[in-house]
Write a structure and sequence with these properties.
The chain is of the alpha/beta class and 335 residues long. The chain folds into 2 domains: 213 residues, Rossmann fold (3-Layer(aba) Sandwich), CATH 3.40.50; 114 residues, 3-Layer(aba) Sandwich (Rossmann fold). 32% of the residues lie in helices and 17% in strands. Helix 1 links the parallel strand 1 and strand 2. Helix 4 packs across helix 5. About 4% of the residues have low confidence.
Length: 335
């Protein structure tokens, strides 16, 4: 029986929903007997602006000289037992019809054939967020895709014999776009305001999927090698992603992806409508769900690719978990 440790590193990090998504997918696969020999340890959020500090957790947390990693005021209770109870309850619920896509979820094969197909001893899986995605440039890591080339690594795995890394933001957003009715392969135009790690990953995946990319500027522009159309040649965008929150141009966009999470503080029906595929504004949760599924498919469990939940399944589960957590917090405040 192998032990699995999972963490998310970055800054700020306390808002992260990745541990919740990890628990949902893990227990879904466990329930379907896909990863029977893995046991998860308590999940971690690691607040840091230096990737070496996050990797330090991966190397030495299991050691007897375990550092006192700072407690974070997270929206989630990351204690494994309590989180498992919530997750197992939510997994029994059905899919919200409003989360079902315009196109069936893509079933794709893993990108790497040389990752180990079994788990032994101790595995370490990690997600990286801003500002760490561009910092990983070590020869000690084996990249299964172009993540290190485009300086956009957000997924790590230690197998007991070596470190592997990948970029999953881009493939996740392409999946989300297709789910929301955008035919990327037909030359759909993506507009990017900003040029950080996530933007580079998305632009690269969009181009590889047959779409076009235009730069809208921003504090840091996307690399010219990842741009296929000039702004003057575009009349309408199929998808706009404004990472900087500063785009005030006149280009019309059929759909806009907001990287941040909307506050779910309205009625259940209003919250579900805000996340619906009918809404032309795509909440950042969709991007997170898409890239998280790709982390499992590409790096953590490629042998389970056909058994992963769909985008709509995982979004529905996440939605229900957040509602339950909000109700629980409200009751605690009243007591």
């Amino acid at each position: 029986m192998g032990e699995l440790r999972y963490a998310v590193g970055g800054s700020p990090i306390s808002h992260s929903l990745s541990p919740l998504l990890f628990s949902l997918v893990f227990h879904h696969l466990k329930k379907n007997e896909q990863i029977p020999n893995l046991t998860p340890r308590p999940l971690r959020l690691i607040e840091s602006v230096h990737v070496d500090e996050v990797l330090g957790w991966g190397y030495i947390e299991h050691d007897q000289h375990n550092p006192d990693w700072a407690h974070l005021n997270s929206r989630l209770d990351l204690h494994t037992t309590q989180l498992t109870r919530l997750v197992e309850e939510v997994l029994t619920r059905g899919i919200h019809p409003s989360f079902e896509g315009f196109e069936p979820s893509r079933r794709r094969t893993p990108v790497s054939n040389y990752l180990p197909s079994q788990y032994y001893g101790e595995e370490v899986w990690m997600n990286l967020t801003s500002p760490l995605k561009h910092q990983l440039q070590s020869m000690a890591f084996t990249a299964v895709d172009k993540g290190m080339d485009i300086l956009s690594v957000n997924t790590l795995r230690w197998t007991g014999n070596g470190w592997y890394c990948a970029t999953t933001d881009g493939a996740g957003v392409v999946d989300v776009a297709i789910h929301h009715g955008i035919n990327v392969a037909s030359g759909a135009v993506l507009g990017l305001n900003g040029g950080g790690g996530s933007a580079r990953s998305i632009a690269d995946a969009w181009l590889e999927s047959g779409g076009h990319v235009v730069s809208l500027g921003g504090r840091r522009k996307i690399d010219a090698s990842l741009v296929s159309k000039q702004l003057a040649d575009v009349e309408q965008l199929d998808l706009l992603v404004d990472f900087d929150g500063t785009y005030d141009g006149t280009l019309n966009a059929k759909r806009t992806l907001i990287p941040d999470y909307l506050l779910l503080n309205r009625s259940r029906e209003e919250q579900e409508l805000a996340l619906s595929v009918e809404n032309t504004t795509i909440d950042g949760r969709w991007m997170l769900v898409g890239q998280h599924l790709e982390s499992w498919r590409r790096l953590w469990a490629p042998q389970c690719a056909e058994h992963l939940p769909t985008l709509e399944q995982l979004m529905s589960w996440l939605f229900n978990c957040e509602l339950e957590l909000a109700i629980s917090r409200s009751k605690s405040m009243e007591e």
